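Milestone M4 deliverable, item 7.
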Amino acid sequence: MMTKLLIALLLAFLLSVLAFPVFIKRMDQLQFGQQIREDGPARHAQKSGTPTMGGLVIIASAMIASLFTAGLAKPLLVVLPVFLGCGLLGFLDDYLKIVKKQSLGFKARSKLFGMLIISLVFMVLLTLTDLYNPVVKMPFITDPINFGYIYPFFVLLLITGFSNSVNLTDGIDGLAAGTAALALIAFAYISYRAGIPSVALFCAALTGACFGFLVFNRHPARLFMGDVGSLALGGVLAAVAVVAAADLFLLIIGAVFVLEALSVTLQVASFQLTGKRIFLMSPLHHHFELKGWSEWRVVSLFWFAGLLFAITGIWQYSLAAAAL
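Output delivered:
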């Protein structure tokens, strides 16, 4: 199995590394460049026009490598619609912003409706494949808890929350892809231990695709993943966690994404209630940038935190699994 996991990772890495130069050249020709938020750090202005939508190659490379190594196993067929559905939402958002010059892209309610449809399809597929399990293992607590009728709403919240959290994290070179890769490695282990090798192989393939992307996204980035990449990564992390019956362990393994989203929520709430800001800027990575940190220093800190969170999540999952 370890050999197949390595093949999946290396194949996706190789496919993405070979495809990205061609993709970057084509995006340059089409002038599909990143739009930089005007209220962001001043030094980000020089990134305007950098080719984006690299998530398309991440998705394609991971799909090819995982299907080659895992085939069309049932658990994988449950996960992939979330991956592709969230990627499609992100692609439409990118298309509206970059091609149609609609600065806000998809309206929030339209995106939420799309997430609702994706989550409903996911729940149906879970039920049809006997993977639906409202009994949720709890980190730091021995006994699992049955979520009962609220479980579908919890899954919707998980998919919507994590797709948007990864999207918020995708603000500086290498940050989202690197932290996502660490989380995916953790879930490759968890999926294998949970007895769903096809999902473990998919996680390995997606890790390889993220590593391939980092070759071109490391600072100074030659390519951004766009919403097509960030929404797909966040959504599929949630889907994998649910299929592997490690729902709440995602909050530990993906704690960097949770903290990024929380920083935005706290910033908005504080400003609306008191007129004061908690951070110099949100999401959290921008706060450190405005304190004078280099992008590489911020990314290194967040990667290290992501590694510690991934190890902690694996440790807690192992304890919970052993207690059953």
